[in-house]
Amino acid sequence: MTLEDMARELVAAALGAGARDADAVVAESDGLGVGVRLREVEKVKRARQRRAGLRVFVGDSTAIASTADLTAEGLDTLARDACTLARSTAPDPHAGLPEAADLARDWPDLDLHDPALEALDPAQPLEWTREAEAAALDAAPEITNSEGSEFSSSVGQVTYASSLGFAGGYRGSHASLAVVPVATRDGAMQRDAWFTAHRKLAGLESPVSVGAEAARRTLRRLGARRAPTRDCPVVFDPESAATLLRHLAGAVAGPALYRRMSFLLGRLGEQVAASAVTVVDDPLLPAAPGSRPFDGEGVAQRRRTVVERGVLTTYLLDSYSARRLGLRPTGHASRGVGDVPSAGPTNFFVEPGPHAPEAIVASVREGLYVTELIGFGVNLVTGDYSRGAVGLWIENGELAYPVEEITIAGNLNDMLRDIEMVGNDLRLRTSLASPTLKIARMTVAGT
Amino acid sequence: MEVAGVERFFCERFGLTNAGLERVLGSALERHADYADLYFEFRVIQTASLEEGVVKHATRTLDQGVGVRVLAGARSGYAYSDEVSLERLEIAAGTARLIAEERGGTEALTAPATGRPRHDLYRLARPPVDTPLAEQTALLLRLDAVARAVDPAISNVLVGIGIEHRVVLMMTSGGVVVGDVRPLVRLNVTCIAERDGVRQQGTYGGGGRFAFGTLTDGRAERFAREAARQALVNLDAVDAPAGPMTVVLGPGWPGILLHEAIGHGLEGDFNRKRVSAFTDRIGTRVASELCTVVDDGTLPGRRGSLNVDDEGTPTGRTVLIERGILRGYLQDRLNATLMGMPLTGNGRRESFAHLPMPRMTNTFMLAGEEAPEDIIRSVDRGLYAVSFGGGQVDITNGRFVFSASEAYLIEGGKVGAPVKGATLIGNGPDVLTRITRVGSDLQLDEGIGTCGKDGQSVPVGVGLPTVRIDGLTVGGTQA
């Protein structure tokens, strides 16, 4: 039985068990992971997973059941379990599938799958990890140790069917290579990391370049000091700027809005960010990390500008949150096989601006250049923001020395409005991506 | 279920035989491997959630699968599948043993055995996963009412119940066969409070490896009232200060400090690889004399407890810091073997789809002698933090953060105005040396902790008495 047939049969079984409507997700993936450390093989890992999930609507009540037991008996149990569960939840007039008019009817081949990753022999990626780690270890005598280099890849398929008659599926693949060197100076250790990731093997950067960049990032952290407590401009490198997009995506996601858990509640059509900022969600970019032909409910996909020159132009909505908010779904239903559908971004990025990253740093007399953020100090209900930061101190427009054990704090409302410069260095390495961003003022806490 | 029962459960479910499994283990050990094991898992997770006054969702998830591991020196070969059959197991064993092929015939190493007995920490007449859904939904509705009754400013209440039933079986090439049936219950309450255009949230919850009835004896109602109270307190919160100051941590969940500041840094893998800020520091002073910190996986019913770890080693109580001196690391089989150290029962994995790693169980500081009120009274100006969100650590340079979700200013020895959530940042090998007072009020957390490491999440516990830390950087906005 194909996965698509399985999804269709699950929907039929649910209707047979008394459901008014139902939809099913069946997914499978095969994975490979290998790692070396200090030039020696450290691990080889192979994975195989197949799972099926079924959502049922019994009257206006809903429930979800999922299983890794894909035998005929297992699937039959699934349909009965889901309907039994639904009889214990409360009716909700907003529950249901999306409207048929919103479903994807046909979809382009988005080039998401690389057959070369299907037949990969572990010996090949082991060689890449060796090369990548060696490039880091050989970069400087101060690189004294390593947490290793890892390659991982997966190939898989997702299929979706619903009682609206929708049935479809697509294949996708993913590969990544990462290096984590450790450097020592005066008895103090620092680590940093670099990686390359792509849906296709040929899209990965060379192992040597990944190792060299990992070493450069690690070495520049040596001799880190603390910074004095003060208000100052903060420049986010592309990796750390992408974390701000994660918070933005969380705050414009439908479930956070109808639950009144977002600082952007009721702000549609308002200026929420500096006019230099345009944020796009584009699920249809060929071979991009977050691309897909339809969302977790079969809804059609299109490019949307979420923030246009600072104005919030759309939320990210699945069908339930759209109905709750009196809006149309935007095709942002995100869904694990057995989870309640939520809403989230696809390829979500800040459009590149006019400034070279060097020019952004040069514009700061005294401030912080952030290269890594740690911790969870973000409150999306209020926008209050306080996280641990690592980076370089900027003096007179130049990166002067590394800093650590400091925090940066503010409120996301102010931070988005205070984005003063947007870099021209956007690269869509991950599904959430940003160029370098400069925020005019935040509070740095250190000594 | 006894071991034999667990073994029969998996053999019947997947049509396997003992002889067949022994053959798989033997095949995994071909070539120059030191060790091999099989890890079978069957898991059911049942959730129910309420928002806006109604029980909107229920989910049921069935996971199952098997992992085959082969160790050769510092190398791990691993293959897993959620299709379980002898044929799949043979294929997996063939993949896992690839790791051993390149290795010469060096002498096999073995970890020193522990002489510990197995425990029986969470045997239950009715597993919580068998709780009728109607009982669960009734509790959800009751908690919604309890939270809303606290204050009219409570505008939304979200309650979630998650119940897990996990059956695992481990078979090792050393002849060990161990089964464990692991119940786990968790309840979370989030309240939104709104007043005069200000909106805030409060979150509270708890759980453990215990019967569903343990939640319904008043504990769940207390969680709901706490979540509502925290949301209301935060409505009045002022901006947090920025910079180094004296910080008093309340008892219980603020023990996340220990988890981040020292716990991860004492995990065997980081120390064997010499990438931890605590590498080579056993026997040296890493905390003030007032501090004794243990990791204890044997506390009955606790979220972080286990009868055996995920390699079949009985869990134990490991002293990490004794009166300020670093005493021990947390180990799994691979790292204990390579370091020539004893197994501590800390080899844990998220599921059959993951390799085991050294992980914490319940990590806490033993009680001191001071009254908590006296500790607060001793501070002229500082921060009193009683509840936290998550934390994170950079193992290599030792810098860690944890983020307060309920905190107050201390002024003139008295608890003053609530402040907005702020991240606290410090240096692991240094922060406990700044502890100048330890309270007599040790509490363990309510049972909500989940620890993430290298992409794997496992349930953990923490605990702390009230402590005073002289000089921790507070990441607020008032510079």
Short structural summary:
With about 450 residues, chain A is α+β, with helices and mostly antiparallel strands. Helix content of chain A is about 20%, strand content about 35%. Chain A has 2 domains: about 5-220, PmbA/TldD superfamily (PmbA/TldD fold), CATH 3.30.2290; about 225-445, no CATH class.
Description:
- The complex is a heterodimer of chains A (447) and B (479).
- Chain A has nine helices and 20 strands.
- The model of chain A has no long low-confidence stretch (mean pLDDT 97).
- In chain A, strands 1, 2, 3, 4, 5, 6 and 7 form a seven-stranded antiparallel sheet that branches.
- By secondary structure, chain A is an alpha+beta fold.
- In chain A, a hairpin with a 2-residue loop joins β1 (21-37) and β2 (40-58).
- Chain B has 479 residues and is an alpha+beta fold.
- In chain B, α2 (18-28) packs parallel to α3 and α5 packs parallel to α6.
- Chain B is globular and about 70 Å long.
- Chain B has two domains: 3-235, PmbA/TldD fold (2-Layer Sandwich), CATH 3.30.2290; 242-475, no CATH class.
- In chain B, a hairpin with a 2-residue loop joins β9 and β10.
- Chain B contains eleven helices and 22 strands.
- Chain B has helices spanning 3-14, 18-28, 86-96, 98-101, 133-150, 219-235, 256-263, 268-272, 333-339, 372-377, 428-431, and strands at 35-51, 54-72, 75-81, 154-172, 177-195, 198-208, 242-249, 293-296, 317-322, 325-326, 347-348, 357-358, 362-365, 381-393, 399-411, 414-419, 423-427, 435-438, 443-444, 449-453, 456-464, 467-475.
- The interface between A and B is large, with 77 and 82 residues.
- β2 (40-58) of chain A pairs parallel with β3 of chain B.
